[in-house]
Design brief:
- The chain folds into 2 domains: 69 residues, no CATH class; 57 residues, no CATH class.
- 74% of the residues lie in helices and 0% in strands.
- The chain starts with a helix and ends in a 5-residue tail after the last helix.
- The protein is elongated, with a radius of gyration of 25 Å.
- With 136 residues, the chain is an all-alpha fold.
Length: 136
């Protein structure tokens, strides 16, 4: 995929300082050299001359704080009642609970709920195997 300089320039004209600082200084390794260069040029045109400029420093700190908050939120465990109900009613309840946790960005809780669902299903299969009259 080729980098479209004109589209990037148009987009960067409308972008906020936070977005440009993210591209130019905070997560520059995730972007092409052209994108980083254009973001830095746009910031320079707005009077932000480098990562130590107060606006850039403030935006970078806000981005880091947001990333930390998202990481903390993603690591919140599942509610114990949800896990118990997912284990007991390993069908629609567990699936809905896992999807709700997933849509809320709670990766750890999502994984825990799926484990409760599949743990119950695995035990049901093993129990079913013991109930089969083998050898008849």
């Amino acid at each position: 995929m080729k980098f479209d300089v004109k589209a990037a320039m148009a987009r960067y004209k409308d972008a906020g300082v936070d977005e440009l600082v993210r591209i130019a200084f905070v997560q520059s390794a995730d972007f092409t050299q052209e994108a980083v260069y254009l973001a830095r040029e746009e910031l320079h045109g707005r009077g932000v001359d480098g990562p130590n400029h107060p606006l850039a420093s403030h935006a970078a700190a806000a981005l880091h704080e947001k990333d930390e908050a998202e990481t903390t939120h993603a690591q919140l465990p599942a509610n114990a009642l949800v896990l118990i109900l997912s284990f007991i009613f390993a069908d629609l309840f567990a699936i809905v609970a896992a999807l709700l946790y997933s849509s809320a960005g709670r990766k750890k809780a999502t994984a825990q709920t799926w484990k409760a669902f599949f743990g119950w299903a695995a035990r049901l299969i093993v129990f079913g195997l013991f109930m089969i009259p083998w050898g008849k």
